[in-house]
Amino acid sequence: xxxxxxxxxxxxxxxxxxxxxxxxxxxxxIRDMEIEWDLSYTSSLRRGFVxxxxxxxxxxxxxxxxxxxxxxxxxxxxQSEFWLRLKGRYQDFLAGRDPGSPEAEEEDENQAFAAxxxxxxxxxxxxxxxxxxxxxxxxxxxxxxxxxxxDGRIDILAVDKAGRFVVFELKLAGGRNKALGQILYYMGWxxxxxxEGPCRGIIVAKEISDDLVLAVQRVQGVSLFxxxxxxxxxxxx
Length: 237
Fold this sequence. Notes:
Distance between the termini: 35 Å
Strand content: 15-25%
Helix content: 40-55%
Structural class: alpha/beta
Number of domains: 2
Order of helices and strands: HHHHHHHEEEEEEHEHE
């Protein structure tokens, strides 16, 4: 994904857009609100309130078209969903309610450190971490990152040493039915339209549930990988 497609929602332009559409009071409340809670998010939280405000006033599409075209990309849509979840957790915090389940905590941690797009970009440049001699598929100017198909985009489309296609489906959170259903559709599409089949599929997730393992045991050509994040610090002076 090119840099322009990863541009974060611009708050200054959002405030100006809101004022121009008779939402001056609501915009001022978002811009000037004092944020005090147990998480470090501030700008991301304000973006959640902005997305919610524009959605309720049927202005989000117009704002995206004018100021934030990245909002219409899969990456932008995932970011909007994260910001809205963050807004909900903040409102729960203010009301004294449980700010979220362990699953919600995990999703926020993933988004803060490695959004699905970041995981995708890392793996697409380091496919050897999954399997030696894997290479990213290329078709003219189109590479295998978010490879377009008839009904969606394949996270990563690679080719193994035998010349067979390998379809990657990346997941930060659960959802075995969605993950398995998506990858099977993509595998079928690749076999039909690109040939060289049957292709293989790889689901990469932070947590692999027993349910997903059980389901995949009945499916040929699909493998499961769990990713782990680690950070090291090296003194340089």
